[in-house]
Please model this.
Amino acid sequence: MTNADLILKALSHPVRRDMLDWLKTPAKHFPDQEHPLEMGVCAGQFARCGLSQSSVSAHLAALSEAGLVTQRRVGQWIFYKRDEAAIAAFRASLDTL
Model:
């Protein structure tokens, strides 16, 4: 599977698109996070989508595998950020289709 295929598969699910949207403006969507948002958004914050922790983890893993988000482990927490460069590169690649 190519990277473009992984990205398209990741974007095919509405919850993952919501997650990417929330990560675009984390201060708006995760104002109560205890850790600084500059670190990223803690995986536990995504409970707002109403899914189980295992489902949330699977969605974040799909976004990470596709290269749309980066993850950083700090102690027991994992923080996620959008990978804006990867998203821009994917968008630019659509122009060649």
